[in-house]
Amino acid sequence: MRLPRNLCLIRPPITGPIRKMARKPDTPEEEHALFREAMAGVHPQCTDRVEPFRTRPPPRPLQHPDEQHEQELADLVIETPEFFEFRRPGIQHRLFHDLQRGLIPPEDSLDLHGMRVTEARKAFSRFFGASLHRGRRCVRIVHGKGHNSPDNQPMLKQKTYQWLLQSKAVLAFVSAPRWDGGSGATYALLSRKTGRR
């Protein structure tokens, strides 16, 4: 006995004692008889709805937020000043001045000394993702002055400047005060709105 594909059956609740099948039926007639007995009282639910065919999208690996941020950090061809001073429109002058004077203490710090650019990019991305997630207000990035770099070019300092400009969560950044690294470190003021997810 074959049932149509789109036929759903509704079984009434079992009120009597549940019988266990003692043995496997030997013949197809016994099997049909057991099936009819089990389906006694079941009424067919008629429906003419057919589930539409949907193509499933191919699976795509989820990207970690840090990896997405890392891919957004491009290498720019811009001149890097010796002392950093940057603020986005709308940042109060007094807040920016406090950041310059070191009155807003950094809550976390990242040291990029001795890293290659690819390693530094990953570390920067992870650090920023974690800092934003934790709701940090001010962070310090130690990139060095580039005295030990080939041709005395401060490569990590240049990259830090470029990455900070591209990070939308950075409201302002300045070179650290002299007593906390001077032009070899940077204080960055972060937005708390873009942080906690």
CATH architecture of the largest domain: 2-Layer Sandwich
**Which sequence of strands runs across the widest sheet?**
3-6-7-5-4
Number of helices: 5
Q: Runs with pLDDT <50, length 5+?
A: 66-70
Query: In total, how many beta strands?
Result: 7
Structural class, from helix and strand content? alpha+beta
Shape: elongated
Task: Tell me the quaternary state.
Answer: single chain
User: For the residues shown, what is the average pLDDT?
Assistant: 76
Proportion in β-strands: 15-25%
* Gap between N and C termini: 56 Å
Largest sheet: 5 strands, mixed
CATH first level of the largest domain: which class? Alpha Beta
And the CATH topology of the largest domain? Ribosomal Protein S8, Chain: A, domain 1
List the helices and strands and how they pair.
Elements: E1 8-10, H1 28-38, E2 43-45, H2 65-72, E3 85-87, H3 93-101, E4 108-111, H4 117-134, E5 138-142, H5 155-166, E6 170-175, E7 185-190
Parallel strand pairs: 4-5
Antiparallel strand pairs: 1-2, 3-6, 5-7, 6-7
Helix pairs in contact: 2-4, 4-5
